[in-house]
Amino acid sequence: LQAAVAGQLKTYEHSWWSEVQMGPPDPILGVSEAYKRDTNPKKINLGVGAYRDDQGKPYVLSCVRKAEAQIAAKKLDKEYLAIGGLGDFTKACAKLALGDDNEVIKSGRNITVQTISGTGSLRIGANFLSRFHTEARDVYLPKPSWGNHTPIFRDAGMQLKAYTYYDPKTCGFDFQGALNDISKIPEKSVIMLHACAHNPTGVDPRPEQWKEIADLVKKRNLLVFFDMAYQGFASGDIDRDAWAVRYFIEQGHNIVLSQSFAKNMGLYGERVGGFTVVCKDAEEAKRVESQLKILIRPIYSNPPMNGARIAATILNTPDLYKEWLGEVHGMANRIITMRELLVANLKKEGSTRNWKHVIDQIGMFCFTGLKPEQVERLTKEFSVYMTKDGRISMAGVTSGNVGYLAQGIHAVTK
Amino acid sequence: IMSLFGEVPQATPVAVFKLSNDFKEDPNPMKVNLGVGAYRTDEGQPWVLPVVKKVEKLIVADNRLNHEYLPILGLPEFRSSASKIALGEDSPAIQESRVGAVQCLGGTGALKMGAEFLRRWYNGNDNMKTPVYVSAPTWENHNSVFANAGFKDVRPYKYWDAEKRGLDLDGFLGDLETAPKHSIFVLHACAHNPTGTDPTHVEWMQVAEVMKRRKLFVFFDSAYQGFASGCLDKDAWAVRNFVTQGFEMFCAQSFSKNFGLYNERVGNLTIVARDADNVRRVLSQMEKIVRVTWSNPPSQGARLVAITLNRAELFAEWKDNVKTMADRVLLMRASLQAKLQALGTPGTWDHITQQIGMFSFTGLNPKQVEYMIKERSIYLMASGRINMCGLTTKNIDYVAKSIHETVVNVQ
């Protein structure tokens, strides 16, 4: 049989795929894959932003397990969700971001659809803007931004530009630089803002700075695209982390918003997210909704149930919701503690560099300030895995490995 | 203030979902939904497969499992076992390591990923102008998936012969002969949607001969494996035959129907290439496409399917559950045909039992369909397509009588 098949195959002179090049490994997810291959027992994975407990293990939230048990007992069917997703989820998702009493929700002028986590949300958003926001093709990302933002918008047909954001000299926010750049952005362009816990830098504007940004963005008549992947994870407080989003809306910006529940509910692989368009009124929201469905259907028809059901159960059940708030707070606190420990250990190692930014930055990530060559050394010599831009996921730091990590960082920076 | 979205027009709703919506709002107690393609029990209820319930319990109880990200291409044990289902465990392609797979969001997601890849990489870069052929008629979302992936030329190939209510083989072969070389053809692996009309083995081999000679690309859509005849292997005959013939091809698999996992979005794009090196490079490019679309696929459904397929007793139980569904459909087909014949309904109704799978192309015209909906509260697609699963022993008399009345009174 094999010979016969081989004979058949010879009738093709070539493969359809002979010209297909080997694609480069994904810069972020590729890190985890390299980590897995490493046999060094001291290896540390500070690559992908997935929370780990102090034993370095994945953490399934207790409220998630409880929600799962509740759901299992209900014996629900598996019928297709609507294209826009589970209603119980999308309503709660919008409320979480905008606040229970938000006028936008009350007047029905938002449309919120369930998406395939944050990536799926950004992609639907990019597709929507590409098709309907025809006055401007440019999306302005902060410099730097999450690595996957650029390919997503590009693949959707938008053009990418940048505004100053991170100041490598201070490892902090370059507020003046940002304002300068934003003031020059052509009207109607799309500006991407990280709602909280900026990825990859961990550098967030302060409220007074957000206010000035909101003002300037309004003057420039820009379309605001908020990416909120870490609500609750940044400060530990849901409302505090959503403050910028809510402020902008209050100031009259009709924003578009991506939300992810990968990190704050630990539902990474279940792919739970939302995409919201704040419209002029309920009638416009209906039209926008119909077009979002037209965009979603030829990609995956309708979204997966499991994660959305879990999230909805948590958000809509008072004691589970309360438990969730506590667990998010706990995760954020552990991160903050690790930041403090890392700095303390670096000092203990004898480092004389200024590491204040490690504590000032917020959320899962820390922009260490390490240069690519230093990162390479840290990986090769110490089996510490992180992205080339010097970003580390604080979630991968534990009281057990923080000493070793400090050793490595000090070694490559002294 | 001028809204940025002031000019966004209201889009027309997707027909099949609008139908279900209208059905829901109909107060008539006799109403029957023969629209959307989901299995129903004889009580007219959704059916969560017993094996699925069992495996769900296993998953919830297993504290070692968590919700971490899957790899970009999905759960490895799902991908390999899903491909085995399509190609057969002993497939030469698998043994020669020239099969790859991408876990996707349902059959739609698998078609989408395949389409996006082809548009970028098939036959040189940039295939926006490469013709993509879909059957006339076909699942309505096929057109959108390929158009949305950037293909500017999505065309029909002759398939359904309305007059003789069967396959237009000559038309099909004719279109294969005249299609520009390297055109992409979307083939229904079994249980053609919406006609329920599949080529015979001999007819498939004729199709394969032309496609090989004219270097046309084979893209199978396999959404009903097991559901058509009740036997997984039988339903995969065409796919496996094409593999034996040496084709490089894509096969978009859905586990929505045969596992009843509709809302968990479980799909697999199986890739058969000439050798392992080609597979490797293809998969690396698939990763890039996945990353800008959904990053990595959802965990629950794939886990469930992988556990089921990889454990002998569970696999056997699943095959049994699939046969249960397929058998009920066959029973409803036989029953409907018999009743129409007994009523003396004008026309021939053999196609009801000759057609295969979930759907039947009744041959009712749009006016007759409108009559069925408006006057009898029986909901079916404007094309005359009915979902056999919507029939039960309790409503089949009403449906048969209604079809009879419609055919007699409405032309």
UniProtKB/TrEMBL annotation, chain A:
Class of this enzyme: transferase
Gene Ontology annotations of biological process type: L-aspartate catabolic process
EC code(s) of this entry: 2.6.1.1
Pfam family, one: Aminotran_1_2
All copies of domain Aminotransferase class I/classII large, residue ranges: 42-409
GO molecular function: L-aspartate:2-oxoglutarate aminotransferase activity; pyridoxal phosphate binding
Keywords recorded for this protein, A-Z: Aminotransferase, Mitochondrion, Pyridoxal phosphate, Transferase
Location(s) in or outside the cell: Mitochondrion matrix
UniProt cofactor(s): pyridoxal 5'-phosphate
Catalytic activity from the UniProt record: L-aspartate + 2-oxoglutarate = oxaloacetate + L-glutamate
Assigned GO CC terms: mitochondrial matrix
The keyword Mitochondrion appears for this protein: yes
Keyword Isomerase included in the entry's annotation: no
Main location: mitochondrion
Family, as annotated: Belongs to the class-I pyridoxal-phosphate-dependent aminotransferase family.
Miscellaneous remark of the record: In eukaryotes there are cytoplasmic, mitochondrial and chloroplastic isozymes.
Oligomeric and partner information: Homodimer.
Protein name (Swiss-Prot/TrEMBL): Aspartate aminotransferase
Organism per entry: Oncorhynchus mykiss
TrEMBL record, chain B:
Cofactor(s) of this protein: pyridoxal 5'-phosphate
Cell location: Cytoplasm
EC number assigned by the record: 2.6.1.1
GO cellular component entries: cytosol
Keywords: Amino-acid biosynthesis, Aminotransferase, Cytoplasm, Pyridoxal phosphate, Transferase
Predominant location: cytoplasm
Similarity field: Belongs to the class-I pyridoxal-phosphate-dependent aminotransferase family.
Reaction catalysed by this enzyme: L-cysteine + 2-oxoglutarate = 2-oxo-3-sulfanylpropanoate + L-glutamate; L-aspartate + 2-oxoglutarate = oxaloacetate + L-glutamate; 3-sulfino-L-alanine + 2-oxoglutarate = 3-sulfinopyruvate + L-glutamate; (2S)-2-aminobutanoate + 2-oxoglutarate = 2-oxobutanoate + L-glutamate
NCBIfam families on file: PRK09257.1
Subunit structure: Homodimer.
GO molecular function: L-aspartate:2-oxoglutarate aminotransferase activity; L-cysteine transaminase activity; pyridoxal phosphate binding
Pfam families: Aminotran_1_2 (PF00155)
This protein's name: Aspartate aminotransferase
